[in-house]
Amino acid sequence: MSDGLANPLQQALVTIFSETPLETLEQNVDRALEAITLQLHCDGVFVLTGSLSLDHLRTRNLYLKPQFSQGQQTRVWPLARMPFFRSLVRNPKLLNLSDVNTLPPEAQAERALLRDWDVKSLLVLPPVVFGETRIALGAVNCSECCEWSEAFIQEFQHAAVMIGSAMELTRIAHDMLASENKYREVFNQLPLACALLDKQNQLTMLNKVALQTLPAQHGYDLFDMVREEEHAMLTDTLHMVREGVLGQAWCELPLKSLHQLVWLRLSFSQIHGDKDTLVMIAEDVSEKYRLADELSFHANYDALTGLPNRLHFEALLENLLHAKDDMPTCVAFIDVDQFQVINNISGHQAGDKLLCQLALRLKQLVRKGDIVARLGGDEFGILMHYCNVDSAQHIAKRICTQLATHEFIWENRCHNVSVSMGIAKLDKSASDIYTVMSHADAACRLAKDKGRNGWHLYSAKDPKMTRLYTEMMASVDIVSALALNQFELYFQSIAPLNKQQSGLHLEVLLRMVQPNGTIVSPAIFLPAAERYNLAAKVDLWVIDNLLKWGSSHLATWQQLGLVSVNLSATSLGDSEFMNWLEMRLMTEPELVDKLCIEITETAAVSQLDQATKLIEVLRPLNCQLALDDFGAGFSSFAYLKRLNVDYVKIDGQFVINLCEDEADQAIIKAICQLGQDMGFDVVAEFVESAEIGLKLKSLGVDYAQGYAINKPAPLLSLTSGLADPWLV
């Protein structure tokens, strides 16, 4: 037996284990054992394996020279199962027997087995461990007893290391192969489209779903799937993952398609340890984009007419307002005249049909590039690009003229159609788009006030425009004042002339208090309240706060003779307000008998039925009714008879020049006679002097009201309800 042929042995083992695939390395362990036997000049080599503690030993590989095998099954060697041998091997130390006859008496079974196999000398190395592989390498000599030299043991140990590492690598290879097959199957069964992407951006492996849903096969270039304009986004996404900026990144891109637009969310992530290969998951998000497009349409376009809606119109106007060029632009507002009449007579379906027809006609009547939008209800807007004022007026004239000839027929009923149109130039110095829009809206309202079926150009120097614009601004102030409680109640005394009365008779008035403390006259904000349908809300605030004041100043209220409060014409026709008024008055039974509701003569005549209903509400509650501004409207004895009012207030135009004008004296005297005959008291307004007061008294007027008696004062300043005599 040689003492050392290390290099040839190692070279032989390297050759054996390097020339075969990793997963079949274990098949060459037998060749390795034969090589060890030949190179180290022993008679046989074996490999024992077992658990980490070597409690369960088995012979995994065994090689004996042919002359010593004697036809034995060389992979079954019972020595590994014998107790004494197992106890020796379990100890992590070298087992070196130059003569097996030196085995102790308790190893009789082992000695007998070794003799049967003609084993004279035995060497078993301490176990070596590689990962989950634990082996013990042993050598036998059958020809003669021998001493196992240090050189032999050293080379034998080197061989054990190579065999153990080869066996562990084989185990790992088998596990990896099994794992790869398992994960490949899982990958293939995933319900999402998955693929691997190599560094050339080619799809190297696609699962079943990917093959069924993606327009790609193995080896297909990913960039060929998407539109060219999306390549930059895809490149950036892949770069962030490959460079490690993000562990995972995704992008949503449309695919190339000849039929329908398909959107995919492509998610990419790295494979651990493989920088060049990415995992790609593709998810169809087309429905999301379809819904987004649908929502975008509904958000920016009118569902009925298909025109841009107010939101889109304002966004376009915003862009034009902040554009750096000096392109002249005009904005137009269009309101369909008497549209509510068509709705009331022929129904809302007819109204919708008319709006669609008008939308189509407007698009035909404007220039190419102009934007027609539906702003809401029966209102349209037009953005006219590269359009000066003269051109805008020419377009407005064409629209009004052409639409006036448009006949709308619904169920054999013909409706005449016309529009009112307001035009405003887009002023780049405007603070916001709503200033521009308010100019066009104000011009449109003036066009309606002029008789409809026409147009009006906004001009800041136009007195009518200034008044209307002031009212529009006042309407905003009214809404703010209602929300922030910026109104204040005032009162003005009504003095008796031909009556004996201890309690103060007063009229409740309203003032708006601005944040800086400025008092706004009702002559400014009340017309705006009427025009912009805010009067009912103002009246509600007045009556509610008046009754609250009365409840908190009950002693003063009970001293009062009468408290008059005005009600607007629009409130009179507002059923919701009238219902509220009845319920509110019913909750204050100790206050309502001092209350007198004033309505104007014009409101009473134009809404006689509603005025009659008001009386039906007031009479059971012992409230009284006054007719204000008598003589300024359609004076008629017929409605006086029907209304049965308690007070008639003569309009101030008959009072101001009373002392000089005999006609005014005759009219007032006649009204007083009428009052005596019909049972109502007469109140004269605008009494500016004691001389007028004395004249009124001589004519038979019952009460006087005006600056000669007192000026309006805050209701909170009233401390007593007793009246001071006037004209004593």
UniProtKB/TrEMBL annotation:
Q: Which InterPro entries match?
A: Cyclic-di-GMP_PDE-like, EAL_dom, EAL_sf, GGDEF_dom, Nucleotide_cyclase, Rev_trsase/Diguanyl_cyclase
Pfam families per record: EAL (PF00563), GGDEF (PF00990)
Q: Which SUPFAM superfamilies match?
A: EAL domain-like, GAF domain-like, Nucleotide cyclase
Q: Which SMART domains match?
A: EAL (SM00052), GGDEF (SM00267)
Going by the entry's taxonomy, the superkingdom of the source organism is recorded as Bacteria
**Per the database record, which ranges form the EAL domain?**
471-726
UniProt xrefs under CDD domains: EAL (cd01948), GGDEF (cd01949)
Instruction: Supply the name of the protein.
Output: GGDEF domain-containing protein
Q: Which organism is it from?
A: Shewanella decolorationis S12
Q: Which residues form the GGDEF domain?
A: 327-460
Task: Recite the lineage of the species.
Answer: Bacteria, Pseudomonadati, Pseudomonadota, Gammaproteobacteria, Alteromonadales
